[in-house]
Batch of 2 targets.
Target 1
Amino acid sequence: MTASRSAKRTALVTGASTGIGAEFARQLARRGHDLVLVSRRSEALRDLGANLEGTYGVEVRPLPADLTDPAALERVAARVEARDDPIDVVVNNAGVGGGGPLARQDLTDIQASIDLNVRAVVRLTHAAMSSMRRRRATGGPRGVINISSMAGALPAMPGNAVYAAGKAFVRSFTESVALEETSHGLRATAVLPGYVRTPMTVGLQAADPPDVVWVSAERVVTESLRAFAAGRTHVVPGYQYKIADVLLGVVPGAVVRRGVLAAMRRLR
């Protein structure tokens, strides 16, 4: 470790083995945070942790867990709530997308999506806020960063109904919690990325959409941490999605729905 425990800050990142989660781990380590990294992929967590410890001199502790498993989720929540080794920032990044038309989906897959994209976010946010209220700040912003999606900002997303609705919930939930916790000095920021080249978007990448639809994981994380530090309740990373977010506020919903349906048909 590079500093005393009293001066160190610790972040817990879910879905940390690849993509946006791994980038959060890298950028937080670069800022001097010790890390607790959560993912189902224990070997990938160990490899990433060893790399970050060697590069940035921080302490990284892998915490393998499948957050759709209630017992595993409770283990992670207990780590967030630990009084003797407190967590300062929780990044709820783990998620699953897609699914196809609702009528064709397996109910088990639907439940797993809700468990990961919604239930785990609520449980770990609750763990973070309740435990952080009980102790004094050690310097720097404390709270949660919850990964929503631009899918949750759309009035409809056919073929991704459960995913989009879950992400809409995450945004509303996070912004509400942010207002609840302002007087306690805690922060909650919802992040609404567009398309990012990660394992979750492999199918879309194969369709080869235009470059303008992509925003890098590095930009997503950089803008997210900046927004969290500034106490903003939500952030839309990438200029193209910032423009889209503004347009969604002024274009009639019926027009947006038709555009979404046409765009999805072209990408299939």
Target 2
Amino acid sequence: MARFGGLLVTGLREVTSDPAALDSTGFWAVAHDFEGRLICARFDELRPDPTPPGGATTGAAGGGWLGPHPDSWHSSLDRTAYTAGVRRIREHIAAGEVYQANLCRVLSAPLPDPARTDIDALTALLAHGNPAPYAGTIRLPSHGVEIATASPELYLRRQGDTVSSGPIKGTGRTEHDLLEKDHAENVMIVDLVRNDLGRVCETGSITVPDLCVVEKHPGLVHLVSTVQGTLRAGAGWPELLAGTFPPGSVTGAPKSSALRIIEALETAPRGPYCGAIGWVDADRGQAELAVGIRTFWIDRTEGRPVLRFGTGAGITWGSDPEREWDETELKAARLVAIASGTHLF
């Protein structure tokens, strides 16, 4: 099953990793891992079904949700390793190799009761405690996909041949926390997204309707921009994903250099975090894919289910290592508390 924007989709028909399927027919749920694994699931049944009331302990599978103990979380990079990584990125910037790179870490905690791991029930809790414009669930356990996202960031929206993206760069508790560095960071990523969309859009069609708009979300604010273009004739989902993935806001600029630096510094795969999560309605030529931030996923590869959550920050020459660590903590604190059952609604 999957759940997006007040719609519950069931009746799984097929699963494929071929992005060309998204140009065919039907309604698809899409999960694209940062490392490249693509799962496209076509469903037959769609019906309005708002997320269950906040605090619900039973989801569509009947098992409900019992989150990790709040003290059981550990990070792929501790504070010392993360701040050292920030300093290393600044060295790459000083050497002229990159302007910006997004440094991330993955939090993990064992789930105490395998019978109470319904990811859709976690989505219900997130919807109540941390509502987000691109929230959703994809639950395909036989394909290793169990995702609950409370993403605030648009990766790709498609309305026919019009394609748009809404990169986020710049985070603070309030608007007064945002620095000149945050605005510069956002503008750099806007240029990168313009370039990415330019690979698959008609020449001269790329515009930036909004630049560095302050958006308020639970517990924090973001700077958000909008980049838009017209898809060129003959370009479909394979070309669109090839030209723009991974999302620019969670990689860096230039993207190729940032990806090389990320691979050297990060110690855990990002998985769905920083990938793409959402839906494609091939019949109507519409789609909405979020950047997989503020996202939980269940990993059952080691037998006992483990809940994972990613958090990170964009590093520029103006970055202070301790402040960047604090930003990753800010982004994670509220959602991890919700998943662990310690956030007071």
